[in-house]
Amino acid sequence: MDIAIIEVFIILGLTIFFFVTELFPVDKIAMFIVVSLILLGLVSPEEGISGFSNSATITVLALMIIAVALEDNGVIAWFAKGLQRLSILPLLLLIPVFMFITAGISAFISTTAVVIIFIKIIFQLAERYGIAAGKLLLPVSFAGILGGSCTLMGTSTNLIVNSIAQNRGVEKLGFFEFAFFGCIFLVIGIVVITSASRFLPAKNASESLESDYKLDELITTLTINDDSPLISKSIKNISFLNTPNVTLLKLIRGSDVTNAPGKYITLAQGDRLVVMADLETVEQISAEEGLSKKNTEQSKENEEENGEENPESEIHLVEVLILPGSTFIGNTLNSLKRFKLEGALPVAIKKRKNIRNTRERLIRKDLDQIRIKPGDRILLEITQAELNTLENLEGIVILRTHEPFEPKNKTRKYITLAILLTVIGLAASGILSILASSLTGIALLLVTNSLEMNKIYHKVDWQIFFLLAGMIPLGVAMTNSGADIWLSEHLLMLFEGKDNLFVLGALFLITMVLSGSISNNATAVIMTPIAITVASGLDLSAKPFILAVMFAANFSFFTPVGYQTNTLIYSLGIYKFKHFFIIGGILSIILCVAGTLLLATLL
């Protein structure tokens, strides 16, 4: 084996390891790949940055920009709004209807953007009508993926596979060329998930935030009595306020409320300290420090009776979900103050689940030092006056306690919808490529003032862009070193004497398993060249093999890792890993068998 092939396999192995363990964000991993390939001489510097100008990468970026306009101008919400009228349907009908509508929209719009909107809609239905969110979120995510597999522009994976295949001399895929197969897979998915819905958790998202975050026994208001030794002491000199067992959330002095008070503030008689601590600690410090205890509900009632609250200063508990691409990612909770939210007080954070931590982690201590990741949920205490500011921040979703932002300009909504239909029409008819039609759509959005450049900078998920740009050179390195040919030859030796149907099915299964461990796009970059070489070695058409890679990379339903929307709904804390492994695993196996049999007709 050539040394270059060994180096490629080492980089490939490390890439898979870092993806699985999530030691670094995916965009950082992608950049490490580019630098490593260039330094080892596996690709030239020009080839190393070729991913940034690759047609598939730019097409994905363009479609994400269009999705920003669709979401910002209310088009996706408008599509989904009618679903609230369906709340009267029994669950066995509601699930397939939700899945069908989600899939239909996702065939032409970014799956992630669609699912994010549906998360909002489902939480509203759960709160208003008592519908269990756990019965709908996973089906909607799966349907979005299945719907995206029906058209060439449906998912970034489809575009990546098509681009790599074209670069290797394979005839490009048509816009609706594989829609027939995609629709069959969608029907199978709807039937399987609806049948398995009885095993989905019946958790209702409308439970109180205080209960969900276990705050009732933790947040207490302590009033300083006239004989308290704390009078005239500064916060920094009070020992119990500087221990990990007690967190001072705010100081109330008359009608003035100070969130996260500074350590140099001097306390006075009658001051109220809102602290977070366990009941045993509260009882101890109350007795020792001359404090009288009130729970949060009593405090609120007293404040209302005394007329101390006004609409602008009324405090709300708000739960927000951090989305991929959010400007908060990588920052600490203390950084909220840099985003025009000086009055927002982080009360608790639920860290998203992942492969290393399959249990949700609720954190309530040392919050300022916690770094934010995509999928984290943060409980904020915030004033009414700042709720609108919170709503307009990019990269977050308010899950509970507030209505989603409604765009005021309806004209832009219809203009944006018309532009979307134009983009689809130009691409589907073959008049323009998807890249050309999507860039044309962006130009029209900018000309009609339906999209602003600052929205593009802030709302596009740049992690996906950098992931694609970084993974494409890895595919180039596999070709340059001969690693793809080496792998293909050994696969052919392994499958020697086996039926072509078996080889196709094995390729489908290998791709699906790999996609369940790393991202779907990374899997597509790795497996597409191998699939083409295997087809060539068998003297067969490459099309069924590249379609097998494309579908299999999308269909890794058995883990929440392979696809971004699955990771998002997993992070909400409703599902356990077993729901994906069992229900998603059954669906993946059925789709693997069905896909192999259907694609074999093209051999």
UniProtKB/TrEMBL annotation:
Keyword Transferase: no
Acidic residues bias locations: 302-312
Biological processes per GO annotation: potassium ion transport
Domain (RCK C-terminal) ranges: 207-291, 305-396
Keywords of this entry: Membrane, Repeat, Transmembrane, Transmembrane helix, Transport
Entries under InterPro entries matching the protein: Cit_transptr-like_dom, DASS-Related_Transporters, RCK_C, RCK_C_sf
TM helices/strands, residue ranges: 6-24, 29-45, 51-70, 82-101, 137-161, 173-193, 414-447, 462-480, 501-520, 540-559, 580-602
This protein's record includes keyword Phosphoprotein: no
Compartments where found: Membrane
A GO term for molecular function: monoatomic cation transmembrane transporter activity
Domain of life: Bacteria
Biased composition (Basic and acidic residues): 290-301
A GO-annotated cellular component: plasma membrane
Residue numbers spanned by region Disordered: 287-312
Name the record gives this protein: TrkA family protein
Source organism: Leeuwenhoekiella polynyae
Biological classification of the source: Bacteria, Pseudomonadati, Bacteroidota, Flavobacteriia, Flavobacteriales
